[in-house]
Design goal:
Elements: H1 4-19, E1 34-41, E2 47-55, E3 70-74, E4 77-78, E5 80-86, E6 95-101, H2 109-124, E7 130-136, E8 140-147, H3 150-158, H4 168-180, E9 187-193, H5 208-216, E10 220-225, H6 231-239, E11 245-248, H7 254-266, E12 269-274, E13 283-291, E14 296-304, E15 311-313, E16 322-323, E17 327-329, E18 332-334, E19 341-346, E20 349-352, E21 361-363, E22 371-380, E23 386-395, E24 401-403, E25 415-417, E26 420-422, E27 428-434, E28 437-442, E29 449-451, E30 459-469, E31 474-483, H8 493-516
Parallel strand pairs: 6-7, 6-9, 9-10, 10-11, 16-23
Antiparallel strand pairs: 1-2, 2-12, 3-4, 3-13, 5-12, 7-8, 13-14, 15-18, 17-21, 19-20, 19-22, 22-23, 24-26, 25-29, 27-28, 27-30, 30-31
Helix pairs in contact: 1-5, 2-3, 2-7, 4-5
């Protein structure tokens, strides 16, 4: 299903992209402290892990942070701070996805310097940190999946070669997808590029990486090498996801940037918060304020609450709604992935199990008894969690539906007519009339009437069918009945023989009578 959550997030990011190209946050100016929310991880929802950077008045990272110094709010409602950990603790692993542009423009010194800087960065990571290496040019390649073996990553970096065009959007999107597969709570992407999207090779759209990163709660750190980069795209990718954007006019600055990034990542804090939200798959605003002895500061960031249990509603069916005609009900389902099972029940009995979107059900009052009913919907996800909803509605008493097909053209021979009836009740009666005169009446099937053209004069007549159900509701069907203008009937050979015999007898009788009563001549 195209999930509503993704559409809302995409809209949010596009609006932010149009308004602010460098940041998605409404960072608040503090009295000396600079606070930045870098990433939000909701894998353990309702517990939320927030990666936080706090700099003092001189721009240096705070060495420690006390939970009592932190206030957190979601949609302006207070949250509980469960704990704070410093990333200087090497027991807190970091998962890094290195995404490197290896297009033809990186050939020579740019790629060599980039490789040297990336190797220094990998060597600076803690033993428990893991790294994945991805390259992009005309194609995107996962050179090295996630591993804690830094020597293997370094060897893979040393072998990188340049060539091809630049599928920047696809590279960024695939890097985010790869990063999201890590089981580490602290995940991020570091992307280096010296150019812009070139050759229309990306299947991903410009904003897809931003949307995916926001949904996954991971930041993108971008490095623009040289003067031909898509600065707007790289700065937006960082600002909209909680990362940082770095510019390197020449390859010589790359080593310092990667080294500074390593120190920056280890100067952050992981703050664990308890959310009071339901997992609704919708965007929510998180605000964190840090108050020190002599300074304070804060930051706000939009995150998406995960769907822990499928959220189900039936917006097309209102409580106590009266159903008088066939009505299609389309549910609203918010779920992680696709439903494993969708089951509708009517008055406690399963009635439908649609297996593909939009998972609709049709309520037909002619197939339901009049009165109150309860429609329930249960949706189960891949984890076995089930979300349910139910709505009570009323089925109205509706009149029967009656139709009947007659032969085309004038009727020359006897026919049998039988109406088609749809009734809300099991019992009903049928009356059939021609020109207002009832020729058939019954309350038991089969409802069949014979029409003999000999019984009617030639020309057009009106045939009427009246159906009355057990509630007294009636429906009427009228149709033209045309009797042939030709001979009403053709006598059979036997009938002709009988008529001839009768005529002969009548003639003989007449002759005998006339003979017996003829006058008599008397001779004189």
């Amino acid at each position: 299903m195209r999930r509503t959550r993704n559409l809302l997030t995409a809209l949010l990011l596009i609006m932010a992209f149009a308004l602010v190209l460098t940041s998605a946050r409404a960072q608040e100016g503090g009295e000396g402290l600079s606070v930045q929310i870098n990433a939000i991880n909701t894998d353990a929802f309702p517990d939320i892990m927030v990666v936080l950077t706090v700099l003092d008045e001189t721009g240096q990272p705070l060495p420690e942070l006390d939970p009592q110094d932190i206030q957190a709010f979601e949609d302006r409602a207070p949250m509980t701070v469960l704990g704070v950990e410093s990333l200087t603790d090497e027991n807190i692993g970091i998962s890094v996805t290195l995404a490197v542009d290896v297009s033809l423009s990186m050939l020579g010194e740019p790629l060599e310097k980039a490789k040297e800087a990336a190797i220094l960065f990998v060597r600076s990571l803690a033993p428990g940190d893991e790294v994945a290496l991805l390259t992009f040019a005309s194609d995107v390649n996962v050179v090295m999946p996630f591993t804690a073996d830094k020597d293997a990553v370094i060897t893979a970096i040393e072998r990188l070669q340049a060539g091809g065009r630049t599928a920047l959007y696809e590279g960024a999107y695939q890097a985010v997808q790869l990063a999201a597969t890590s089981t580490y709570p602290r995940r991020l992407v570091v992307l280096l590029s010296d150019g812009a999207e070139y050759g229309n090779l990306s299947r991903a759209r410009r904003e897809d990486a931003f949307v995916a990163a926001t949904n996954a709660g991971l930041p993108i750190y971008t490095i623009g090498l040289g003067y031909g980069t898509d600065r707007t795209y790289l700065s937006s990718a960082a600002g909209l996801t909680g990362g940082e954007y770095y510019e390197s006019p020449s390859p010589d600055e790359l080593a310092a940037i990667y080294s500074g990034l390593s120190e920056f990542l280890r100067s952050q804090f992981v703050v664990t918060l308890r959310s009071g939200l339901i997992g609704d798959g919708r965007p929510h605003e998180l605000e964190i304020r840090v108050t020190g002895a002599e300074a304070s500061g804060g930051d706000r960031f939009t995150f998406t609450a995960p769907v822990v249990v499928p959220l189900v509603s039936l917006p097309a069916l209102e409580a106590e709604q009266v159903i008088e005609q066939t009505t299609t009900i389309t549910p609203f389902i918010t779920i992680e992935g696709e439903p494993v099972a969708v089951v509708y029940s009517l008055d406690g009995e399963p009635v439908a199990e649609p297996d593909e979107p939009p998972y609709e059900i049709t309520l037909d009052p002619y197939h339901l008894t009049p009165g109150e009913h309860v429609l329930s919907l249960a949706v189960t996800d891949a984890d076995g969690d089930t979300g349910t909803t139910e709505v009570t509605f009323t089925v109205a008493e509706v009149p029967p539906i009656v139709q009947m097909a007659l032969p085309e053209g004038p009727i020359e021979e006897p026919i049998t007519v039988s109406p088609f009836v749809i009734s809300q009740t099991a019992g009903f009666s049928v009356d059939i009339a021609v020109d207002g005169e009832v020729i058939f009446s019954s309350d038991e099937p089969p409802f069949e009437a014979e029409i003999d053209p000999l019984d009617f004069s030639p020309g057009e007549h009106t045939l009427t069918v009246i159906v009355t159900d057990e509630h007294g509701h009636q429906s009427e069907f009228d149709s033209a009945l045309v009797i042939s203008e030709g001979p009403a009937a053709t006598a059979t050979a036997q009938e002709l023989a009988m008529l001839a015999t009768e005529a002969a007898v009548q003639t003989a009788t007449q002759v005998a009578w006339e003979t017996a009563h003829a006058p008599t001549d008397t001779p004189t």
